[in-house]
Each structure stands twice: as structure tokens, then as C-alpha cells.
């Protein structure tokens, strides 16, 4: 009988592993709606993250060769710093985060993490080092516990609850009639945009990556939810090197550096005060936003 149970137990573990892996691939494909295009090189090494410093060196990129999107983009984010990227819609902001996660390979230049070219390391080691809070988080048709634990399948219930508290989603979960076992996703409870982002933040906290990418939702959240998320992110981002793709300027005033992209080129860089003083594109965008917010 024992002999029968042992393989069944192993099968259970294998099943869960496969489920996580499939869920992972499913999420990636659904997020991008694109086939996987990059391959590990035969000599790929493991990324060794020591400080979590990011550097883009003269990066060129286009989704199609005939339509270049990024032109010679260079910047660096020191260990533990927060860099925000702003620019008009279509400027190429989210593309930077997709390249850092290596969903695509650059067509010119290099992207380095702690001095290692990300094209030369294994994708698995790269993705272990980066937590992503995407614009629209995909939830699995499973319990809310599973959806949080996905950030780190080894996490204990204590860890999960701590992350949920940090992401300000704990009280919401506890208030549900079925609590942590509530089924979510397309066939379960539909979470709001803000709740889904907080699930994604909790996942990132559980993963404890040295590098965090936060792609702010384009669809506007109500201002109380947005403030709560910003507050959470501010607390969380302090621990990581953060690349923040900002669609609203109000959310990035405190960033260490702000990169202004225009049609795939870096046109300005500095902190909020220096960029305002430049009276260039950033200052114009800021003026426009103040005007919009006051309506
Ligand atoms: P927004 O603020 O509207 O989100 P963004 O600055 O983040 O814009 P990106 O998403 O980086 O812009 O897109 C930059 C350009 O690349 C756009 O012109 C877009 O049409 C194009 N693009 C984005 N994704 C793809 C894709 N998968 N295939 C082809 N072109 C794409």
C-alpha cells in the first residue's frame, strides 16, 4: 500500500510543479499575446545579482524591423534607486520594461544587470531576479491564496499574510465570506483593477526580487485607491531597484530620477524639480496634467 501512496504523493508534487509552470507560461503569453521569441544562448550563464544595478546602453529596438520604436536609449538605475519613465502614449515606456524582462531581444546596444549582459544569461535566472507588477494582472481560476502564493510557491501562510498586509489587501481577503479560499479569476470573484494590482504587489513582495518593475495601470483608478497603491508601492519600492513606468505624473514626483521619452528617444532626464526648471516637455506635461486634474 505504501508503495502505491508514495508514487501518488510524488505525482501530486509533479502535478503542482507542472501547474505552476503552465500557469507561468500561460500568464506570460496572455500578457503579451505574442509567441516567445528569445532563446537562451548555448553558453548562457546564471545571472549573479549583487547590487541590482540596471544599465541600458544605446538600446535600439523595434517590434518589426521596418518600424523602429527605441533609438539609442541609455540610462542607469543605481542599486536601490527608483527611476520613473514618462512620455506621451506610444513613446515606448512599457517597451523598456518588456526588454528588461527580455520578452524581446534588443536590436542594438545592450542591457546590463550588475555588469552582465541580459542576453547572455539564462532567462530563468533573469526572471527570478525581477518582480513585475503589470498594468493588468492576470488572475488564475483558483483561490486567492493560490493567486498570492504564485509569487513564491514555497511561501508559508505567515509570509503570505504579511505580504497581503503590506499590499493592503489583507482586510479585503478576510472580509470575504470564504476568505482565503475564495475562487477568483474569470470563473470566480472578479476583482477590481486596484485589488488586482494589490494582488500583484503582494506577489512581488513574496518573491523578494532585487529588481522591481511597476507598470502603472493606464485605466484610472479612483484617487483613494490610487493613493493607497502609491503609498504601498513607496514602502515596497524602498527595498528594491525600481523601474516605474508612469502614466500619470502625480505618481512619480518622489522618484530619484525621471526619464522623459519622446518617440523612442530620451529627451530629458533629472528629478522633478530640475525637469520643471528645464521648462521642456516634462514641464509642459506637468502643466497639462494640473489642468486636467483641476477639471
Ligand atoms: P502607453 O502610455 O500608451 O502605455 P507606451 O509609451 O508604454 O504607451 P509602448 O507600449 O512601449 O508605449 O509602445 C510603443 C510603440 O510600440 C507603440 O507605437 C505601439 O504601437 C508599439 N507596440 C507595442 N507593443 C507592440 C507589439 N507587441 N507589436 C508591435 N508593436 C507594438
TrEMBL record:
Coiled coil: none annotated. This is ABC transporter ATP-binding protein/permease. It is found in: Cell membrane. The lineage of its organism: Bacteria, Pseudomonadati, Pseudomonadota, Gammaproteobacteria, Thiotrichales. It comes from the Bacteria. The chain crosses the membrane at residues 1-15. It comes from Thiothrix unzii. Residues 54-288 form the ABC transporter domain.
Amino acid at each position: 500500500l505504501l508503495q502505491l501512496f508514495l508514487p501518488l504523493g510524488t505525482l501530486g508534487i509533479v502535478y503542482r510543479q507542472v501547474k505552476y509552470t503552465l500557469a507561468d507560461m500561460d500568464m506570460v503569453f496572455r500578457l503579451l499575446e505574442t509567441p516567445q521569441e528569445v532563446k537562451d544562448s548555448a553558453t548562457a550563464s546564471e545571472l549573479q545579482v549583487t547590487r541590482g544595478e540596471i544599465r541600458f546602453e544605446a538600446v535600439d529596438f523595434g517590434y518589426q524591423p521596418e518600424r523602429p520604436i527605441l533609438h539609442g536609449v541609455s540610462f542607469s538605475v543605481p542599486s536601490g534607486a527608483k527611476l520613473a519613465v514618462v512620455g506621451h502614449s506610444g513613446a515606448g515606456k512599457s517597451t523598456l520594461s518588456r526588454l528588461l524582462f527580455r520578452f524581446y531581444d534588443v536590436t542594438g546596444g545592450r542591457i546590463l544587470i550588475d555588469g552582465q549582459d541580459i542576453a547572455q544569461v539564462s532567462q530563468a535566472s533573469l526572471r527570478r531576479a525581477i518582480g513585475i507588477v503589470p498594468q493588468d494582472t492576470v488572475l488564475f481560476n483558483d483561490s486567492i491564496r493560490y493567486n498570492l502564493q504564485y509569487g513564491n510557491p514555497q511561501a508559508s501562510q505567515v509570509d503570505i499574510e504579511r505580504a497581503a498586509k503590506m499590499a493592503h489587501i489583507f482586510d479585503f481577503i478576510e472580509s470575504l465570506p470564504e476568505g482565503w479560499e475564495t475562487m477568483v479569476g474569470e470563473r470566480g470573484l472578479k476583482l477590481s483593477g486596484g485589488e488586482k494590482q494589490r494582488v500583484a504587489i503582494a506577489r512581488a513582495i513574496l518573491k523578494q526580487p532585487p529588481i522591481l518593475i511597476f507598470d502603472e495601470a493606464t485605466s484610472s483608478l479612483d484617487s483613494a485607491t490610487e493613493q493607497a497603491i502609491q503609498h504601498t508601492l513607496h514602502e515596497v519600492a524602498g527595498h528594491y531597484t525600481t523601474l516605474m513606468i508612469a502614466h500619470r505624473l502625480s505618481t512619480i514626483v518622489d522618484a530619484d530620477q525621471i526619464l522623459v521619452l519622446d518617440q523612442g528617444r530620451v529627451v530629458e532626464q533629472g528629478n522633478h524639480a530640475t525637469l520643471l526648471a528645464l521648462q521642456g516637455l516634462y514641464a509642459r506635461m506637468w502643466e497639462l496634467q494640473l489642468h486636467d486634474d483641476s477639471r
